[in-house]
């Protein structure tokens, strides 16, 4: 027992200060929101769009990337001959609508808080049932990281529960293959109203690399209404946490900008 107490005193406080303090150091190889320098980008060049394995880049009406489809792989930036396309370390990516994930490199509309009535219900206490609808376990793993001592999601009043009947909403990962379609719908129906739905990762938003497959349904939005989209493949735990806190109006922009 004394050894455990001594180790606790030596380790001190390990939980990150986000969002009121500084954000944790992000790894150098993190690929966050992509950025394009339109001035350097030749109009006739389509190499980035052709290299994208999921067709997330559109050039017909000006450069635009669908972050709901994007796998955040380096194929497009590596194919760019001018070096005008690169991935930044901007981790703030969550949005409230699917259309807001269409990024033209200019203003990007981050997630707004829930409506006033829902915010009164969920701001201080939010219970979520996680549904892994055919995911590869990458998004699931990064969601689970939030429950560790370094992140301590429960300090914000957000916890995961075992039963949808005890939940205020669902957090869905995976492309929703046919074998999970009914399970997702039943879990949604078993969650009492009012409820919210959060989708995490490219698969849950658009089908990810499985989009168009005969056994996949290209995300949860085909069946249930979505309140928060958190893109990535997988999204960094900080991206997930930032999205959840924005939904609950728990983000101080001044603090996150300092971070």
Present the secondary structure layout:
Elements: H1 2-11, E1 34-36, H2 47-51, E2 57-58, E3 64-66, H3 75-79, E4 85-87, E5 102-103, H4 116-122, E6 126-132, H5 138-145, E7 158-160, E8 169-173, H6 178-190, E9 196-200, H7 202-206, E10 228-230, H8 237-247, H9 253-258
Parallel strand pairs: 6-7, 6-8, 8-9, 9-10
Antiparallel strand pairs: 1-4, 2-3, 3-5
Question: How would you explain this protein's 3D organization?
Answer:
There is one protein chain. The protein is of the alpha/beta class and 259 residues long. It has a domain at 116-258: Rossmann fold (3-Layer(aba) Sandwich). Helices cover 27% and strands 14% of the residues. The protein has 9 helices and 10 strands. The radius of gyration is 19 Å and the shape is globular.
Low-confidence stretches: none
**Looking at CATH, which topology of the domain at 116-258 would you report?**
Rossmann fold
Oligomer class:
single chain
N-to-C SSE series?
HEHEEHEEHEHEEHEHEHH
* Whole-number mean pLDDT: 90
Number of strands: 10
Structural class: alpha/beta
Number of helices: 9
| Morphology call | globular
**Share of residues in strands:** 5-15%
Strand adjacency order, main sheet: 7-6-8-9-10
Q: How much helicity do the residues have?
A: 25-40%
> Radius of gyration, Cα only, in angstroms?
19 Å
Please give the CATH architecture of the domain at 116-258: 3-Layer(aba) Sandwich
Distance between the amino and carboxyl termini: 37 Å
CATH class assignment of the domain at 116-258:
Alpha Beta
Largest sheet: 5 strands, parallel
């Amino acid at each position: 027992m004394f050894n455990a107490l001594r180790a606790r005193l030596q380790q001190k406080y390990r939980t990150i200060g986000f969002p009121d303090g500084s954000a944790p150091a992000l790894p150098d190889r993190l690929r966050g929101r992509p950025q394009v320098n339109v001035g350097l980008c030749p109009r006739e060049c389509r190499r980035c769009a052709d290299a994208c394995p999921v067709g997330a880049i559109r050039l017909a009406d000006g450069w635009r990337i669908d972050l709901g489809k994007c796998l955040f792989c380096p194929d497009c930036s590596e194919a760019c001959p001018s070096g005008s396309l690169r991935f930044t370390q901007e981790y703030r990516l969550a949005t409230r609508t699917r259309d807001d994930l269409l990024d033209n490199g200019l203003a990007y509309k981050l997630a707004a808080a829930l409506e006033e009535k829902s915010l009164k219900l969920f701001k201080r206490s939010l219970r979520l049932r996680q549904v892994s609808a055919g995911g590869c376990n990458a998004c699931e793993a990064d969601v689970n990281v939030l429950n560790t001592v370094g992140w301590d999601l429960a300090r914000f009043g957000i916890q995961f529960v075992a039963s949808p009947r005890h939940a205020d909403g669902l957090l869905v990962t995976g492309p929703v293959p046919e074998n999970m379609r009914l399970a997702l719908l039943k879990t949604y129906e078993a969650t009492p109203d009012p409820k919210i739905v959060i989708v995490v990762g490219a698969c849950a938003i658009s089908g990810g690399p499985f989009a168009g497959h005969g056994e996949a349904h290209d995300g949860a939005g085909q069946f249930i209404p979505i309140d928060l989209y958190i893109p990535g493949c997988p999204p960094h735990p900080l991206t997930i946490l930032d999205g959840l806190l924005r939904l609950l109006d728990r983000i101080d922009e001044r603090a996150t900008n300092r971070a």
